[in-house]
Design brief:
alpha+beta, three-stranded antiparallel β-sheet, 2 helices, 3 strands
Length: about 90
C-alpha cells in the first residue's frame, strides 16, 4: 500500500547524500512532488542542506518584513569562531 498524501502533508527523509521531501502535488490530484536537498562538500554540509530544506518547504511559517514567524539562521562558523570574529572588530 502506497502512502496517501493529502494537501499539506510533508515527508522528510535523510538519505546518504542529502534530504528528500515528498509532498502532495499542489496542481495534480493524487500525485506527489519530490524535492532533493543535496549536501555540500565541507564541514556543516548536513546542516546547510537541512536549513535549505526548511527555508524552502516551510517558507510560509518564516518571519518576513510584514509577518511574524520563525526566524532561522545558518552559519558556516562555530560559535567559538563567530565570537573570535566579533571580538576582532
Amino acid at each position: 500500500m502506497l502512502p496517501d498524501y493529502k494537501s499539506g502533508d510533508v515527508l522528510i527523509k535523510r538519505v546518504k547524500n542529502g534530504w528528500l521531501v515528498v509532498t502532495a502535488s499542489e496542481t495534480e490530484e493524487n500525485q506527489t512532488q519530490i524535492f532533493v536537498y543535496e549536501d555540500g562538500k565541507y564541514s556543516g554540509w548536513m546542516s546547510e542542506s537541512l536549513f535549505n530544506l526548511l527555508s524552502e518547504q516551510f517558507d510560509g511559517y518564516l518571519q518576513s518584513k510584514h509577518a511574524s514567524g520563525i526566524k532561522m539562521e545558518f552559519s558556516r562558523y562555530t560559535r567559538e569562531e563567530e565570537e573570535e570574529i566579533d571580538g576582532s572588530h
